[in-house]
Amino acid sequence: MASSAEANASAGENTHAPIPFIDLQAQRRRIADKIEAAVQRVIEHGAYIMGPEVAELEEKLAAFAGVRHAISCANGTDALLIPLMAKGIGPGDAVFLPAFTFTATAEVAALIGATPVFVDVDPVSFNMDPQSLAASIAETRKGSLRPAAVIPVDLFGQPADYPSINAIAEEQGLLVLEDAAQSFGARLGAARTCALAEVAATSFFPAKPLGCYGDGGALFTDDDALADLCRSIRQHGQGGHKYDIDRVGLNSRMDTLQAAILIEKLAIFDDEIERRQRIAERYDEGLRDIATTPVVAEGATSTWAQYTLQVADRDALAAALKAQGIPTAIYYPRTLSRQQAYRAFPKAPDGIPVAERLSQSVLSLPMHPYLDAELQARIVAAVRAAVAA
Ligand SMILES: *Cc1c(COP(=O)(O)O)cnc(C)c1O
């Protein structure tokens, strides 16, 4: 896909050839033989559910993240849901989460009967604002809900402010569940994401920084007892024996095939993270004088799940880019508080003005590890021309 677009562009025949927003095929070409061999091995050994690749992947994920336990599951949403179930969070409990995130972060709280409370975000990092969190907890304590948990999100690949959030949560006796669906592999100081809170969840949805060929997810914790509970819930609440059911659980295992694919992708993931960083730097250099480019906090890194600009007239910019075959995306066009499903749930006492403003001004550009310099230069030139127009 990318190669034919480049060939056309360099031949000068069609500089408007469409380019992909995320080019999954470029990665596939790089490791196609390894993935096909891994898939073939699983098909032949036949242990399609909880086969040996699942345990191997879990070991590798735990080592990568620097956490004692990595527990694979069916998707990133379940990876958030399972620890909330394990902690017995439910009706009467308030779960604090940013208003500017993907729906799954709020969905899991609502599904177990708890009340999501929408917290505002920081205008620079786009992540949960610790002051808005503290104010929301204080406000909630005046009512009948019990503050129980906080789910910070590492939006677009950058870790949230865990030192501040963990301190608030500890003082207030709240669980912290890191939503690292977009940030697997990023760092905060010496630690990787998924090691930044009591328990963490990530997603291997194909478009995430580390994606499989379908749905997949994993949760992470250093707490042995919590890990045992989560493993049980992942498998129907199973106890010591297959037909001992100790609690109500889920069927949320990761397919062996997906684990086998992820093992091959994890082997090149550090290299892909470096490529993403170089691409983000090239966008920064090309665009920072004409648009508000993303800022990564001191001491942190991003895995650049998205490269997101803030622009005054994003609709005009998106239309101008589309006319040149350059796709863009809006994550997220509405705060969760403005979604029909979540309208009735509470917000921070001072509201969510930053989240509201971002939802009107953000625009994400094509970003993946195999975006080559020529194609990227074409995108940068098109953004510059559109903003100047
Ligand atoms: C993708 C995503 C999820 C859910 O992951 P799935 O694997 O799609 O279920 C949760 N939270 C955030 C912030 C995400 O971006």
Structural class: alpha/beta
What's the number of helices?
13
Query: Which hetero ligands occur in this complex?
Result: pyridoxal-5'-phosphate
Radius of gyration: 21 Å
Q: Strand sequence of the main sheet, in spatial order?
A: 1-9-8-5-4-2-3
Report the sheet-strand fraction. 5-15%
Mean pLDDT: 95
**Fraction of helical residues:** 40-55%
Sketch the topology as an H/E string, one letter per element: HHHEHEHEHEHEEEEEHHHEHHEH
Oligomer state of the chains in this structure = single chain
Q: Helices and strands in order, then pairings?
A:
Elements: H1 2-11, H2 24-45, H3 52-65, E1 69-73, H4 76-86, E2 93-98, H5 103-111, E3 115-119, H6 130-141, E4 146-150, H7 162-172, E5 175-179, E6 187-188, E7 191-192, E8 199-203, E9 217-221, H8 224-234, H9 256-266, H10 269-287, E10 307-310, H11 314-323, H12 353-361, E11 362-365, H13 373-388
Helix pairs in contact: 2-9, 3-9, 4-5, 4-8, 6-7, 10-13, 11-13
Bound molecules: pyridoxal-5'-phosphate.
Write a structural description:
The structure is a single chain. The strands form three sheets. This protein has a seven-stranded mixed sheet with strand order 1-9-8-5-4-2-3, with helices on both faces. A two-stranded antiparallel sheet has the order 6-7. The chain is an alpha/beta fold. The protein contains 13 helices and eleven strands. The two termini are 30 Å apart. Pyridoxal-5'-phosphate (PLP) is lined by residues 75-77, 101-102, 104-105, 153, 179, 181-182, 203, 205, 215, 217.
